[in-house]
Amino acid sequence: MPTQSLLVGLIGSGIRPSLSPPLHEQEAQAQDLRYVYRIIDLDELGLTAADTPALLTAARRLGFDGLNITHPCKQIILDHLDELSPVAAELRAVNTVVFDGGRAVGHNTDWSGFAHSFRRGLPGAAADHVVQLGAGGAGAAVAYGALSLGAKLLTIVDPNHQRAATLAADLNRLFGTHRARAAHPGRLAEALADADGLIHATPTGMAAHPGLPLSADLLRPRLWVAEIVYRPLETELLRTARALGCRTLGGGGMFLYQAVDAFRLFTGRPADAERMRRHFLTLTDTTGG
User: Fold this and answer.
1) Following DSSP, what letter does each residue of 21-87 receive, concatenated?
2) Which residues, including other chains, have CB under 8 Å from residue 94's CB and lie 6 or more apart?
3) Residue ranges of domains in the chain
4) Are 191 and 165 contacting, i.e. CB atoms less than 8 angstroms apart?
5) Looking at domain 5-108+258-287, does it have CATH number 3.40.50.10860?
6) Mind listing the pLDDT tens digit for each residue in 141-159?
7) CA-closest candidate to residue 56, choices 41, 72, 67
8) Does a cis peptide bond (omega within 30 degrees of 0) precede residue 72?
9) What is the mean pLDDT of the chain?
10) How remote is the C-alpha of 203 from its chain's centroid?
């Protein structure tokens, strides 16, 4: 019989297709845990990101053991938690909340998920200069991951230039001056001219936000392209980049490895990463990615 029972959930917008419930639940079953993972979709409930604090309070009162947090709630939740892990505090973004003794503690496993995926999927990739599109909650995490992996210069481009500038300043404080900079969207072509790689960290390409996040004319074969969107696994950006001869990294790996780390935080047990990877591949094959 299972020796532990847990109730967790995911808060976000347009998240009904998420693979988080079966991925977590299958790993829990393999570890003989009773584990229920619920979807809390803002769109289905007629709510907005501003309702995230109320949902956090409700989950706490209903006895949830933890929550995953995704777009567009990763930053708005910050001021409503009792404690932040050191990395979550540095990034100002949370994707995992653990209820511990009545306290809500925020963590970030996106950055480590991206770093693990990058090491596995793009080994040996040059990173003297990397351009990143997106400076939101997920963008902050992957930027932290990229610099942790050794990127020498990260140029961040976001429609909200002040948000990009703030993130760059935070990263320079953490990693040393001149490691990150912000660029206006109108200077994206200039930034990409001497870049080794492109990280895409916006919702563009998701099922609900189809399309390319930049002009295909800006891509060239020597550029590697890393995507964080994982539904669908094959975004228009990845298809376009691969057709041009670019090395590519899909968003599935980041999703998988952030889940591995979140499972450990929720349960206090290490997940079997290779088993979860097999589960993920089965799920994406079954659902069409």
Assistant:
1) HHHHHHHHHHTT-EEEEEEEEHHHHT--GGGHHHHHHHHHHTT-SEEEE-TT-TTTTGGG-SEE-HH
2) 69, 74, 75, 77, 78, 81, 84, 88, 106, 107, 108, 137
3) 5-108+258-287, 111-250
4) no
5) yes
6) 999 999 999 999 999 999 9
7) 67
8) yes
9) 95
10) 11
- Whole-angstrom distance, CA of residue 41 vs CA of residue 182: 32
74 is catalytic: yes
pLDDT, tens only, 169-215: 999 999 999 999 999 999 999 999 999 999 999 999 987 789 999 99
Q: In terms of DSSP bridges, do strands 224-227 and 197-200 run parallel, antiparallel, or are they unpaired?
A: parallel
* Domains 5-108+258-287 and 111-250 belong to one CATH topology: yes
> Is it true that domain 111-250 has CATH number 3.30.230.10?
no
Residue 26 · residue 84 · CB < 8 Å? no
Indicate the burial class of 177 (C-beta count within 10 angstroms; 0-12, 13-18, 19 or more): exposed
Q: Which two tokens stand for residue 164?
A: 């990009």
Q: pLDDT tens digits, residue range 84-126?
A: 999 999 999 999 999 998 899 999 999 999 999 999 999 999 9
From the list 44, 1, 5, 40, the residue with the least C-alpha distance to 25 is: 5
Chain Cα centroid distance, residue 261: 12
The DSSP letter of residue 14 is S
Radius of gyration of the chain (CA): 18
Cβ count within 10 A of residue 51: 16
Q: Of 24, 71, 74, 179, which residue is the catalytic one?
A: 74
